[in-house]
Design brief:
There is one protein chain. This protein has an 8-stranded mixed β-sheet with strand order 7-8-9-10-6-2-1-11, sandwiched between helices. Strands 5-3-4-12 form a 4-stranded mixed β-sheet, with no helix packed on it. The chain is globular. It has 7 helices and 12 strands. By secondary structure, the protein is an alpha+beta fold. It has a single domain (2-236), classed as Bira Bifunctional Protein, Domain 2 (BirA Bifunctional Protein, domain 2, 2-Layer Sandwich). The mean pLDDT is 94.
Length: 238
């Protein structure tokens, strides 16, 4: 059984704080979905802003820069990004807590949702053909794991100019700039609402899914726990 939190217009920083609290404090399986969030830049915990961001452009844009508690790359997100995070207790799930089996399991799940003949997992990205439509990050312990995805329902090309071409990048990307590397799911699927509902339906059909009122997790979030997700002030970076 997965317990589902579906947010609309929740800042991604708040979402990540909720995820991290549930990861540290709660033993249930969770599916967290968020849509229509305000623009932000989200980096992996080991990301280096000087290497990954066009700092002058970021300062001019004046949008939040966040380091999440998990690893992975850097993404620009906005109201057209669909976030899906799956938090699992290893003992309650059939997937072993290692990156490759988690990725393969998630590929199977989303193949059933997206139903596009060219949708697949390439390296650590979801792609349609050779264009990225979803980026992934993970946090894994012996007892729990998190797999979270930013799906590109749509994106603004000017927002991608806030990111440098990373030194470490997937082989299949080669040296392509963002406009030549990314796919918009809206060009391949009929409706964002239906996409989200199909994710819920697929998880429900496989494991069971219980919708949870977001207010019911507030007591968990307020408990003392380790907090790695944080905001970065771009103006403090030299």
């Amino acid at each position: 059984m997965f317990h589902c939190l579906h947010f609309k217009s929740l800042p991604i920083f708040k979402q990540l704080q909720i995820e991290e609290a549930l990861l540290r404090l709660d033993d249930r399986n969770w599916c967290i979905i968020n849509e229509n969030a305000d623009p932000a830049i989200v980096m992996g915990i080991a990301g280096k802003p000087n290497e990954l961001l066009e700092l002058d452009a970021v300062k001019l844009a004046n949008i939040p820069v966040i380091k999440r508690y998990s690893g992975g790359g850097t993404v620009v997100v906005d109201k057209d990004t669909v976030f899906v995070s799956l938090l699992c207790k290893a003992a309650l799930h059939l997937v072993k807590p290692f990156p490759e089996p988690i990725m393969k399991w998630s590929e199977s799940l989303y193949k059933s949702v997206i139903c596009h003949p060219e949708f697949s997992l390439v390296e650590n990205d979801y792609v349609i053909g050779n264009l990225k439509c979803g980026g992934n990050a993970q946090y894994i312990t012996k007892s729990k794991w998190v797999h979270h995805t930013t799906f590109l329902w749509d994106y603004q090309e000017e927002s991608m100019s806030l990111l440098k071409l990373p030194q470490k990048r997937p082989t299949y990307r080669q040296n392509r700039q963002h406009a030549d590397f990314l796919a918009r799911l809206k060009d391949h699927l009929p409706c964002k609402d239906a996409f989200i509902q199909n994710i819920k339906a697929e998880i429900d059909s496989r494991y069971g899914l219980a919708q949870v009122d977001p207010s019911l997790v507030q007591s968990v979030i307020r408990k003392e726990h380790r907090k790695s997700t944080r905001l970065i002030n771009a103006f403090d970076i030299i």
